[in-house]
Amino acid sequence: MDNIFVTFALMVIRHPSDDSLFALVNEGPTKGWWLAGGGVDGHETFEQGARREALEEAGVEVQPDAKLLQIELGYHRLRYILTGRAASRELKYVPDKESMGAAWMTLKETESIHRGTHNVPNSRLRGPEPVIWFKHLLRGGAVFDIDDVVDHLVEPGTTGLKYERRDVFNAKISCVIACQVGGGKYVADTKEGSMRLPEAEPKLEWDESVEQCAARKLLQMGYRNVIVRNVVRVRDHRMRNNTLDFRVGLFATAEIGTDGAFVLSEPEAFHDDFDRQIVDRINSGKILFPLTLLGIA
Asked: Which of the following CATH numbers is that of domain 168-296: 1.10.274.10, 3.40.50.150, 3.40.50.1580, 3.90.79.10?
């Protein structure tokens, strides 16, 4: 499915030494307060975009060890949510075109802003995300190493348009399914004469998750008792001419349901580099990630 996609990145910025404090950005009277974030430029990785937005909107650099909270897929939108600690306590206080400034807030203060009762200018949140993610981090919720999850490729010569001019990508979004059917065998599909892992395109306009997409594909192939278990790897490939190839690798298990199903007994027969990467990670016992890593935007 080809879509015009805009990529966004948000940074949940934590205070360098006080775990109870988070940076909120004052986006002005029409928008209120929110997380630092915005559109990712065509030549940037999502982490670079999130760091740039943190500096532009909150006036602070983020320490090197930023983590990934969630990747959200939706119709025409891909959004990465990251978190990291500020490199300093000083936040932006001089208004400019990017924001009116930023301030350190507790969860309680943020909830008060959300209710419109906190004593700050523009006492409202642009959306509920600050409350959601502040609670998540304060209760020790999961964070993920970016390099473990995402293979982010940007081809040389990929310039893209600045977000102010609508940085859009002609995007193909798909899920690649490594489905075991007992004994280490994997479900295979034939594509252009070679063995490939099954691949399906989520119907994002229907709010279909990649988990539902993968299950639908395997059921259509004739398998039964399908369980989509984990996210294995994500590939975000930015190519020339503003083209995005975004693939989510998933691990699933199933049982053979019809004679038409085809099982490949030797994982080494997969020659596509992303297919092999997924299978190798599963077979080597590397960390797999919960399905909650992926959300619907």
From this structure: 3.90.79.10
